[in-house]
Amino acid sequence: MFRTLEKLSGFIAFLCLILGFPIETLQSEISDWKISTGFRHASLKVKVDGSGNEEGFALMDGKITGIDFTNLLAQKRSLRNQLLLNGSGVAAGDIDGDGRCDLFFCGLDSPNRLYRNLGGWKFEEIGSSAGVACPGMDCTGAILADFNGDGRLDLVVNRFSGRSFLFLNQGKGAFRDASEEFGFMDAEGSMSATAGDFDGDGYLDLYVANYRSGSIMDLPNTELTLKNVGGRNIVTHMDGRRISAAESRVRFTISASGGVIEHGEADHLYRNEAGKRWNRLPFHNGRFRNENQESLEKAPNDWGLSAVFRDINQDGAPDLYVCNDFDSPDRLWLNDGTGRFNAVPKTRIRQLSWFSMGVDFADINRDGLDDFFVLDMLSRDHQLRMNQSGILKRRIPVIGITDNRPQYVKNSFYLNRGHGFYSETAFYSGLQASEWAWATAFMDVDLDGYQDLLITNGNERDGRNIDITSQLKRMRITRQMKRREILEARVAFPSLKTKNLAFRNRGDLTFEEAGAKWNFQAATISHGLALADLDNDGDLDIAVNNLNSPAGIYQNLSKRPRIAVRLKGRAPNRFGIGARIVLKHSEEKEQSREMTSGGRYLSSDQPIRVFAYPFESGKTTLEVRWRSGRVSTVSDVSPNRIYEIDEEASPALPMKLEKTAPIRVRPLFKDISATLSHIHRQASFDDYSRQPLLPYQLSRLGPGITWHDLNDDGREDLLISGGRGDRSGAFQNEGQGRFSLINSPPFHLKNRLEQTSLLIVRAPDDSKMLLSGFSNYVTAAGPLMGSYNLDHQKFLGELPQSDSATGPMALSDIDGDGDLDLFLGGRVIPGRWPEPASSKLYRNRNGKWFEDEDSKRVFQHTGLVSGALFTDLNNDGFAELVLATEWGPLRIFENRKGHFQDKTEEYGMNGFRGWWTAVTAGDFDGDGRMDLAASNWGRNTRYQEYRDRPLRIYYGPVNSSGTLQIVEAYEDPVSGEFLPIRQMGKLVKGIPDLVLRLKTNAAFGSADIKRILGAEHDAYEFHSAEWLESTVFLNRNHRFDAVLLPMEVQLSPAFGITAADWNGDGDQDLFIAQNFSASQPWTPRNDAGFGALLIGNGKGEFQAMSAEESGIRIFGDMRGAASCDFNQDGKMDLAVAQNGGETKLFQNLSLHDGIRIRLKGPPQNPHGFGASIRIKEDDQFGPATEIHAGSGYWSQDSPIPVLFPSSRKSKKQLDVRWPGGTVTRVEFTGLPRELKVSISGSL
Fold first, then answer.
1. pLDDT band at residue 654 using 50, 70 and 90 as cut-offs
2. Is 1239 exposed, middle or buried, given 0-12, 13-18 or 19+ CB atoms closer than 10 A?
3. What is the bridge-based pairing of β-strands 1234-1238 and 1155-1160?
4. Could you tell me if 425 and 938 are in contact, meaning their C-beta atoms sit under 8 angstroms apart?
5. pTM of the predicted model as reported, rounded to 2 decimal places
6. Vertex 217, ends 211 and 223: CA angle to 5°?
7. What is the largest CA-CA distance in the chain?
8. Mean pLDDT over all residues of the chain?
9. CA 983 – CA 389 distance, rounded (Å)
10. What's the distance, CA 818 to chain centroid?
């Protein structure tokens, strides 16, 4: 045990010898170390002025610092081999043990440089004398790590071609080349490296991401000879030179269309054998397993750029993430604890970036779970984006497939949703684009407790410039060009010196660009980046390796309180690599970091971690969970100190490693979908052949879902609308949680058209009529609705064709005459989207439907109606009609005793124009008025980056095929002009004459909508949208207050929405169905949702349950959703339909039982649709519940709700307000399992 000592140099030196601290640290600028049990600490030299205003960086002058390195690359070389443009990196670490962080820069044409830190921002170059200059070796990536366990940082240097170097640190700034001794293997195109103890033996192992040192893309005019061998085409010769079958198999694949796909080099995994040599491990023999837990047969031949060892699932063992370029997908390998790796299932991460460059991990929302970010090449600049190829790769969505993991040309940000599941949220977070980017790093720049983001970018030539590419292609067509001429013609591509980027973490999962504010915006070609405390003030400075420009050294100027942490691990892992460090505070969320080694793009950080200390009171603790399983704790941590925590000396108990995530809770719902075994079948249709510029497929909007008692046995049965050419899903409720498929007419028949809503209404003779909405969108011909008498098994007829395809349907007794009338929402006019469609209202006259003449004008050109709901907003007994419209508001039509007037503007809804998909009603704040909950597209689509101002959709003159031309646009915040969202190459598919007005993509990128549409501009109409958030609207008596639904809802387009008290607390909750993959082929799939279960607090506010808490995790394209107590246990269950996927059924496992309310209405409305129910106890009313026939998204909830009084003993009153305004009051005590109520009273 140590005694805390004051600064006594001689005695401290003696103590350091005993305890194992390096004597060299006595020369550090940090000299007032105080030693305690298991750690030591020292004060940091922080200039605190109290203002807290100064933050960001100062770019240091190389003439002052002595860091004068430039990574040179001759133009001639890069023209002939553009793979060299991937650049070089930088490594940071204290190589001589003097307590100051040194820097190592890799060079291509330049020799490597090693800069010894002299203190006071002075450095001296010692690369040659240290033996690490490697002139002429084209060095790419570097990592400083202790590979032999002697406490000194060794150096691994990767090369563009040939074997990597291992330099063992000999002390005092000298290194010895041990590459051959350790057994480094030859490789081509070695890039980044990462070190970690993957097998738990204490020694740091090594993973090297390999690319390729040469490619056929740099060999124009190359002739490849193909031969069919064993039924498979392979490449046998290149320019007449024979290549072996083995080389051909790993380098080339022949696509189905006959194209040749070139692959990268296999990565290398080296196990460290006791610090003496490397043992390169094969990827087969069970070392790596695919998503199906099958052993790989060989190493993937990917285009590897970055890799990082990190304990992603926090089980104590380092996992592995690898960034790969081009079509080779990224790999996330989870360590099973024995040093073997399993590919993460595709449902855990559902999409990837296409050109993945760099990756970094951080707990950005401080929930204890690591999120991560992957870089790609999407530009933030409109003109650049309009003239760059590969911006949007064509990916045709496959119906019903959710585990194919498509790749997209954009950055990816993966929000950790717990238990190994992630949602991709780059658009939501504002991180989707960062130019031709290379390296990224999370760090808390402003020391507010939330980690910010740094990104380097730029390229010597913009090789994706469409105009120049087309120009060079024309040159090759017009004349025969030699290979040398073709390569040298690349000089025509402009340089892409874009500004580096910094993003400030707002603490709400969103980021704002702060490069200018923080002075991290150099317009250079920047590759590798490393974080290090270069001046020992406890914050992180930055070193950047720039191509053909001086290296960037950035001093961190922050003056806010901080805590720095270094680790002294047990030998041989002396720097504690793999340890997780957590800063805990009694009143704030925890901050966490992991001590990783390498993993940056071509680079590695100094092994130090920094935490913000924004606390004014409370207790702060540091906890270290070591790779060995031990745990160290430092209590009463103070700000502006550096702590060095000693694993060996800590009186710590081993940490229990859990392979599973934290303690599981009892979920609210149980998935019993196998009871149904139903899959919705969606027929394919090429929407884009009719309207090429549609933003998504309108043919993939179903199905809806309906609960109704079809056979009068007292149990609700289940209906799922069917696709074109498929049957409806009809299931009889057999009781005790069992369902059987109904094969009787009409459910045995296949549908001619796509079904939308399915509703049941009573005929005058009390028989049941099935109303089936039909969408004629695909055929552009066909009825609006079909009617079938279920009891008489008789087809009753159809409503005649209209120019608008049917969307939602809803029933209500609009005039109080005792029967139910019908609304049919017009979803779209085939071939003329987004021209407003017309809707229709039909009166029920003795079971027959007659269009209401009075409302024809009211509902003509209503809009693109996606959801419809009858709900009594003013409690007068007559239900208003609320419509969810796309490119419009929630439209409210007030019911004046059967006559409707558009009161949207009076209710204040015109300011909420969105892409509304569905709407339901509930009394969410308990005031007795019906509030609205509406689904929208959310904040995580490709359109989110344009949301500063309203979006527009222009639609114009009918073309020769009779369809409308479409242009999506956004308002430029600088010029105020509207600019196109899509590139010219996409727009010409719908507007062919565009090329006559704008000759180049550059011209198109500079043009606004007026120039693009030309003389026909005035013939175009447009819709606007400014509100894409799913929202609750609280009824304030003829006006509404908008309340955004939680973040979890906004992560994906929402469709089905249903209200019920899921947890039995007396407040109304929500479930929202999510996801949409049927976007146009160049748009990323919207798949970040799992289905959101929201718990209400009775004040109009909601909190999302995690999937572990709710028991609901759905991956597909959810559509209709409906609630029902199908097993009659006093708890509301849930059914969710999926487009082209399995229908999901969830049983509620809540411990609370409520009262089922069964209404007995008039003969033609026996279920009391339109009635409002409310319980009063102790002179207080609970929330009102309304019975709907058609609500949410093309769906219908059970007409038997479940209510939850607060007390079993008190006397209670049930009020029922029937359509027309009649009120029935019933008194009761206790908690009966079911109450049956008629207009005259309790039955």
1. low
2. middle
3. parallel
4. no
5. 0.96
6. 125
7. 105
8. 94
9. 9
10. 49
